[in-house]
Every structure is written in C-alpha cells, then in structure tokens.
C-alpha cells in the first residue's frame, strides 16, 4: 500500500542493537512496548532528560528501533499478515522454492534486512504477543545450527537481567525449544541469530493477563507493555560486555544467569 516505515536510530556506541515490533499487526501490545522503550531512551516524558542507565546504553550501543514492521497490515486490521497476505515472520530467507524476502510480497522485511546487513547486528529482539501462553517470555535460537555455549550463556544472562529489572518477565515458561539443528531459518530471530552469530530473541507478551504477576482488574495492558519495553535497556546493558567475548564468560556469571530450558506446560 506504500505506507512509510519508521526506524529510529539513536546512540553512538560500538555495539549494534536492532529491536523490531509488530510484524504481526494484530499484536498491538508490541507497539506499546516500543513506546515505552523509546520514551525511556529519548526522554520523551522528561524534556529529554534520561537516567544514568540510559546514558550508559547510548554510549555502549547504536540502536535501530522499528516501532511497526507492518503498517499496511495494521491499517487494514489484519491479524498476522501484510497487505499482500504474507506472514512477515516467515519471510526472512528463501526456503526450498519459496523465495523470500521479495519486494513484491514482503518489502518490509526486504528493506529492514538490507539495512541490518549494512550495519551488522550484535543484539536483536523481535517483539510480539502470544494468544495462548499467559506469560511474558522469550524464544531463543536453540534450534539454530550455530547454537553454542556462548549463545546459551548470552540468552541466560539476558533473561536473568531482564527478570531482575522487571518482575513481569520470567524464565521457565515459553515455547518448547526447537530440536537441535532443526530451527526454521525463515523465522526472524532464528535468521538473525545465524546470519550475525548474535544474541537474537523473540519476545512474547500475553493478550489478557500475566499469570506470573496477575492483575485481575486491569490485566496485561499498554502501560505494562510500555514498562516492559523500558526495562529491555537494563538487560541489554548487562549483556553488552559479553556479546562478542571470546572468553568463557558464562562460567563466571551468578546462578541467576543460568540458562533455563523453557516449557509450555504450566
């Protein structure tokens, strides 16, 4: 439909972090997450004043933040697809005889992936909402061919720091990890994890309430999604020293940072 996509670039640090939101346009909690992240990062509610951790984050990272990956789908009221009927989270590489991404069917992914190839990626998060599991959780790169002790350590440390920063995040519940070597490479976070050998996660939020921290009156809502977005910075600052480390950093981290294999059973 020709609608413009926005990408906010901020920071001057050597590590490159990409955060994208709302590939599935019906998951509008993802854009509230983006609002919270950008409000903290840019001081939008404080006349540009930011806290000390944000100042550190801006020195450590250059951020590229896409608040809405699917503006056409959002305008049309679609749940999971763009104007062409493509599920963008299955368009991140060619599989068999299905070419992707293409300018004709998935221009959103085509242009963002092209920009990622130009900048490189050291840390990545793809923000979604899940209709079934009533928790906030991340899905990692366990099924990717480059899954290693390093990526396992990074994922554990990232999630440990996130849980400490915001109690709405938790570790044990999530999608069952894909079997080793059987990750779907056309899925965004898997493709980024392999393409750049980096920490790459899909972050999911609930539609109704967060069972690990329930609020029967208000449920999961835009304000809490925004707070979870703001807390992403704490986790990214914590893992920054380890992102490209060649040392066995995972052996020196506290128990809170241990990788936990998630389960969908609760």
Explain what you see:
This protein is an alpha/beta fold. It has 7 helices and 6 strands; from the N terminus they run ββααβααββααβα. The chain has a 6-stranded mixed β-sheet with strand order 1-3-2-4-6-5, with helices on both faces. α1 (29-42) packs across α7 and α2 (52-60) packs across α7. The radius of gyration is 17 Å and the shape is globular. The mean pLDDT is 98.
Which terms summarize this structure?
six-stranded mixed beta sheet; 13% strand; globular
Largest β sheet strand count, sense and barrel closure: 6 strands, mixed
* Largest sheet: spatial strand order: 1-3-2-4-6-5
The shape is globular
Count of helix runs: 7
**Uncertain stretches of 5 or more adjacent residues:** none
Structural class: alpha/beta
In short:
The chain has 266 residues and is an alpha/beta fold. It has helices spanning 29-42, 52-60, 71-76, 107-119, 149-165, 188-196, 222-239; strands at 8-10, 15-21, 61-66, 123-130, 137-139, 199-206. It is built from seven helices and six strands; from the N terminus they run ββααβααββααβα.
Topology overview:
Layout (H helix, E strand, L loop, with lengths): L7 E3 L4 E7 L7 H14 L9 H9 E6 L4 H6 L30 H13 L3 E8 L6 E3 L9 H17 L22 H9 L2 E8 L15 H18 L27
Parallel strand pairs: 2-3, 2-4, 4-6
Antiparallel strand pairs: 1-3, 5-6
């Amino acid at each position: 439909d020709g609608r413009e996509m926005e990408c906010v670039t901020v920071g001057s640090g050597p590590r490159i972090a990409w955060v994208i939101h709302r590939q599935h346009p019906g998951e509008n909690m993802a854009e509230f997450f983006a609002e919270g992240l950008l409000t903290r990062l840019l001081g939008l509610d404080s006349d540009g004043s930011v806290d000390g951790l944000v100042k550190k984050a801006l020195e450590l990272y250059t951020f590229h933040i896409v608040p809405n990956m699917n503006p056409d789908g959002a305008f049309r009221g679609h749940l999971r697809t763009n104007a062409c009927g493509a599920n963008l989270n299955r368009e991140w590489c060619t599989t068999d005889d299905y070419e992707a991404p293409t300018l004709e069917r998935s221009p959103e992914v085509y242009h963002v992936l092209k920009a990622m190839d130009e900048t490189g990626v050291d840390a990545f998060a793809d923000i979604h909402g899940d209709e079934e599991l009533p928790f906030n959780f991340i899905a990692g790169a366990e099924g990717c061919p480059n899954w290693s002790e390093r990526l396992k350590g990074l994922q554990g440390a990232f999630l440990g720091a996130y849980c400490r920063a915001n109690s709405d995040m938790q570790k044990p519940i999530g999608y069952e990890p894909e079997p080793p070597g059987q990750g779907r490479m056309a899925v965004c976070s898997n493709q980024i994890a392999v393409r750049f050998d980096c920490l790459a996660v899909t972050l999911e939020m609930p539609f109704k309430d967060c069972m690990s921290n329930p609020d029967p009156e208000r449920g999961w809502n835009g304000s809490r999604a925004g707070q979870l977005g703001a807390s992403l910075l704490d986790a990214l600052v914590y893992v920054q020293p380890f992102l490209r480390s060649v040392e066995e950093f995972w052996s020196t981290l506290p128990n809170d940072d241990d990788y936990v294999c998630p389960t969908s059973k609760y």
